[in-house]
Amino acid sequence: MKTIMIIGKMNEMLKDLNDYLKAYFRVQICSDNVVTAMGMIKVTEPDLLLISLVGLYSIGSDLFARVRKEYPNLPVLTIGSAADIRDVAHFYTGEQFENLMRPLDNKDVFEAVCRRLGLNEESIKDAAATSEDTRKKVLVVDDNAVTLRSMKAMLGEKYQVMLANSGMQAMTSMGKKRPDVILLDYEMPVCDGRQTLQMIQADEELCTIPVIFLTGVNDRENITAVLKLKPAGYLLKPAIPERVFGAIENALGNVEEA
């Protein structure tokens, strides 16, 4: 399955487009921060970039220039009006960048993606209708919405990502769909990470799920208290992709012996 990275300011149009495209492709959502976007491209290695030009302004020139220099063979579709492309028009002189003029619907975008990737539309639709997602499920629990979005973008290509913004919401979510691994923040209101881990370990149906702390808490007292509960790992923020993926694979038992 091909991977598409959507870059832009999140709005209803992009949310709707994401929901539409993820039925046919692996879709990564990324903010319009240039450094973040380039880092995600390196980690996820998308087959195509889909960039919303709405509100991109001067950031667009910096992002386009770096993509053209560092990933000259990566096809880029943009969505924007004539006014939106004015400051970046010179990037469209070659074949790498192509703009889809607003207004347009999700079907138009789907057709353009298939065309740029050399895919047969009907074959993609048929494959989506019969496919089943067998990837491992990772539940990310954090009260920070930005962290949840960035973790979903980071992990979404390789795993099914579930999100919860509190310990109680996590417990409710796990009652409906059991994750294979949990990434858990420590500092959360009402029910913090330690209390959440204790509830998980006290539940006979959930106690075997490996829990990895991903938190900014690094003082000795709290770390010592948490480690006594024997989590599967303890990672400090900011999340470093290589360490996060390594900890998850280790918890899943997928790490090969050297």
Can you give a write-up of this model?
With 258 residues, this protein is an alpha/beta fold. It has two domains: 3-130, Rossmann fold; 137-252, Rossmann fold (3-Layer(aba) Sandwich), CATH 3.40.50. Helix content is 41%, strand content 19%. It contains ten helices and ten strands. The protein has helices spanning 12-21, 34-44, 58-70, 106-117, 121-130, 145-155, 167-176, 193-202, 220-227, 241-252; strands at residues 3-7, 26-30, 48-52, 76-80, 97-101, 137-141, 160-164, 181-184, 211-215, 233-236. The strands form two sheets. Strands 2-1-3-4-5 form a five-stranded parallel beta sheet, with helices on both faces. Strands 7-6-8-9-10 form a five-stranded parallel beta sheet, sandwiched between helices. The longest helix is centred in the first third of the chain and has 13 residues, at 58-70. It starts with a strand and ends in a 6-residue tail after the last helix. The model has no long low-confidence stretch (mean pLDDT 88).
Considering the protein shown, what is the CATH homologous superfamily of the largest domain? Response regulator
Model regions low in confidence, pLDDT < 50 over at least 5 residues: none
Strand ordering within the main sheet: 2-1-3-4-5
Number of structural units classed as domains: 2
Helical stretch tally: 10
Count the E strands. 10
The CATH topology annotation of the largest domain reads as Rossmann fold
Helical residue percent band: 40-55%
Fraction of residues in β-strands: 15-25%
Rg (C-alpha, Å): 20 Å
Rounded to the nearest angstrom, the distance between the terminal CA atoms is 30 Å
At the first level of CATH, what is the class of the largest domain? Alpha Beta
Order of helices and strands: EHEHEHEEHHEHEHEHEHEH
Query: What is the second-level CATH architecture of the largest domain?
Result: 3-Layer(aba) Sandwich
The pLDDT mean sits at 88
The SS-based structural class is alpha/beta
The dominant shape is elongated
**Sheet with most strands:** 5 strands, parallel
